[in-house]
Design brief:
alpha/beta; globular
Length: about 350
């Protein structure tokens, strides 16, 4: 049973999400710009023109989104959409694929479905924009901002005030390590070694982002991949569990390494602030206590993605998963709210996004 406090909080989030968030927040945003890097959990349309299976610019995706299907892997808003609204932006951050002109001064979304920290991750799906390629696209944007503002110094001053969120690494497991028939990584690395290798490469990528002006960075930890309907269908739940525990154990190793990396980055780059958003722990919340009735299958039909033009479930607010991998807007409201403003001490380390924005 949820406590009275939990029920009140959940009601507040839902009310806030369905009213204020849809229309943005009045006044100036808390940061002048918001840049987003990541995978399908954050993608807002960068894959639409790519030759890939990781492309969802069709109904029923976007059925609850104001603009309809945009390439978001959700029925409505993603976590980064929710964060943008909580920060006070009155429009969604545009994808790099379509962003142009002075709109880029307010931020760009580089995220790409299927992408990973490792360049090869997700290649079984087709084209995708890896983390390294997203960094190249960001550098292109920085050059454009230099031109708009007239100097490198002006651009750096502007970028230093922006929020950056990075959510990457899921596909390094789902579409790499957990596919031994297609990728050799599970034979080359133990779970500990693989997590360590990923964190080492991620560290270099984050230092590149820092080198191009990022100073306020929130890094999303990996969620409970072993609870995704697709993984349950492939491996079956572990004895006495509702999830594939071995997958979640491997993910936890990555998250532990990410927390240590954040400590190192904050120690070595004192003019910047890195923080960790604990989506693993947030996802461990007993969602059934907050009205979710279905947590082990997607709302829409399809082996991985929703079938084109299919009819999804009608009670979408009662489903945790939209398709076989991605959460519904109802869950994203919870994750976005708790990333922005911690509800428990474990939600963010060392600070939440609302605090980061004010630095």
């Amino acid at each position: 049973m949820a406590s009275t406090h939990q029920k009140i909080w959940w009601s507040t989030v839902l009310l806030f999400g369905l009213s204020n968030l849809q229309h943005g927040t009045l006044g100036d945003p808390q940061v002048p710009c918001y840049f987003i890097l990541g995978d399908s959990l954050s993608d807002s349309g960068n894959n639409n023109a790519l030759s890939t299976l990781a492309k969802v610019n069709y109904l029923p995706y976007g059925i609850d989104f104001p603009q309809g299907p945009t390439g978001r892997f959700c029925n409505g808003r993603t976590v980064v959409d929710v964060i943008a609204e909580l920060l006070g932006f009155n429009s969604f951050v545009p994808p790099f694929a379509t962003a142009e002109g002075e709109v880029i001064l307010k931020g760009v979304n580089y995220a790409s479905g299927g992408s990973g920290i490792r360049d090869e991750s997700g290649q079984n799906l087709g084209d995708r924009i890896s983390m390294n390629e997203q960094l190249e696209n960001y550098q292109t944007t920085v050059s454009q901002i230099n031109d708009i503002l007239g100097s490198d110094t002006a651009a750096a001053t502007h970028l230093n005030k922006c929020l950056f969120t990075v959510g990457i690494g899921s596909n390094d497991y789902i579409n790499n390590y957990l596919m031994p028939d297609l990728y050799p990584t599970s034979r080359l690395y133990t779970p500990d070694q693989y997590a360590e290798a990923l964190i080492e490469q991620y560290s270099q990528q984050l230092k590149t982002l820092y080198g191009y002006g990022a100073r306020k960075l929130a890094l999303f930890g990996l969620g409970l991949i072993g609870c995704a309907p697709a993984e349950l269908a492939s491996f079956g739940p572990s004895p006495g569990s509702n999830c594939v525990d071995a997958i979640n154990d491997a993910v936890r190793l990555f998250n532990t390494g990410l927390v240590s990396l954040i400590d190192d980055l904050n120690k070595n780059f004192t003019d910047a602030k890195f923080t960790y958003i604990n989506f693993y722990e947030i996802g461990s919340t007993n969602l059934t206590a907050f009205g979710f009735k279905v947590t082990n299958m997607g709302c829409c039909g399809g082996q991985n993605a929703c079938l084109r033009s299919s009819t999804p479930c009608q009670n979408r607010s009662e489903y945790a998963f939209w398709d076989q991998f991605h959460s519904t807007e109802a869950v994203n409201l919870i994750f976005g709210q708790r990333a922005y403003k911690s509800q428990t001490p474990s939600d963010a380390y060392p600070i939440d996004i609302s605090t980061l924005a004010q630095l």
